[in-house]
Amino acid sequence: MSQLEKAKEFNSLHHKDAPLVLYNIWDAGGAKALADAGAPAVATGSWSVAAAQGYKDGEAIPLDFVLQIAERIAATVDVPLSVDFEGGYASDPDTVTENVRKIIQAGAVGINFEDQRVGGEGLYDVDEQVQRIRAVRAAADAEGIPLFINARTDLFLKAGSKGDHAALIDDALTRGAAYADAGADGFFVPALTDPGLIRKVCDVSVLPVNVMMRGPLNSLKALDGLGVSRASVGPGPYATAMTDLVERYKAL
Questions:
Q1: How many CB atoms lie within 10 A of CB 157?
Q2: How far is Cα 46 from Cα 235, in angstroms, rounded to an integer?
Q3: Nearest by Cα to 85 from 123, 119, 46, 121
Q4: With contact defined as beta carbons under 8 Å apart, do 227 and 196 qualify?
Q5: In terms of Cα–Cα distance, which of 2, 1, 249, 3 is closest to 148?
Q6: Running along the chain, 252 residues long, what does each successive block of 10 average in pLDDT?
Q7: Could you tell me how far CA 108 lies from the centroid of its own chain?
Q8: Among residues 195, 208, 168, 149, which one has the least CA distance to residue 7?
Q9: Cα separation values, 26 from 52, 66, 116, 156, 237, Å
Q10: How would you write the chain as a 3-class SS string?
Q11: What's the pTM value of the predicted model, to 2 decimals?
């Protein structure tokens, strides 16, 4: 498939109550293994990509290195690639546009784009993040690729597992609606694991909703009837692979 065809295919894979499963990988070898196993698309996780190269998460791995990794993955598999692009390696919209054009040129047809201030405190105000999402869309338009912008809110991650997630739902829904108006294609709510709250977000959101599989979300069956369109696993596969590596070494 051409990159344009991959982009259209990736967009078409998001269906309510029939979630696209993205088992996040960190290199071309992992991407090929999953594609050969029948995965319709592959996606990186920023934590895993960084850790695999000895960096911490949070845009510590240089952008040029991320672009190189994405390019190798895209050249290795003939399925759509989504890249966890964190905050776009910039705060200002103009640089966001420039950087997103680079990740598209590397072969990505989708990105995760978060609303936390990477390396800073808290989240961007809604209006600020709207301008940043518009900058992402401008990059996609300039490249002629219908990039799938998976707009991520970090409200629930910042609150932690013991936070009052129910009290954050209205804020999350406000952000989701604003991000949709700005040109986002999906709404990502990592760390939200309560089925009732997930259902509420899915019922209200005009965008396909992406959840991260963790805690009580330990199988696709746990998502039945919630309205989820996409399920990803974040750094879990990398952590499991490294644990297995160490255990096998010690077993010798």
A1: 17
A2: 8
A3: 46
A4: no
A5: 3
A6: 97 97 98 98 98 98 98 98 98 98 98 97 97 98 98 97 95 98 98 98 98 95 97 97 98 98
A7: 12
A8: 149
A9: 7, 10, 22, 24, 9
A10: CCHHHHHHHHHHCCCCCCCEEECCECCHHHHHHHHHCCCCCEEECHHHHHHHCCCCCCCCCCHHHHHHHHHHHHHHCCCCEEEECCCCCCCCHHHHHHHHHHHHHCCCCEEEEECECCCCCCECCHHHHHHHHHHHHHHHHHHCCCCEEEEECCHHHHHCCCCCHHHHHHHHHHHHHHHHHHCCCEEECCCCCCHHHHHHHHHHCCCCEEEECCCCCCCHHHHCCCCCCEEECCCHHHHHHHHHHHHHHHHC
A11: 0.97
- What angle (nearest 5°) sits at the alpha carbon of residue 60, between those of residues 58 and 65? 120
Q: How many residues does the chain have?
A: 252
Token pair of 226, please? 């919630």
Distance of CA 131 to the CA centre of its chain: 19
What's the pLDDT at 161?
Answer: 86
> Could you identify the residue written with the tokens 């040029």?
64
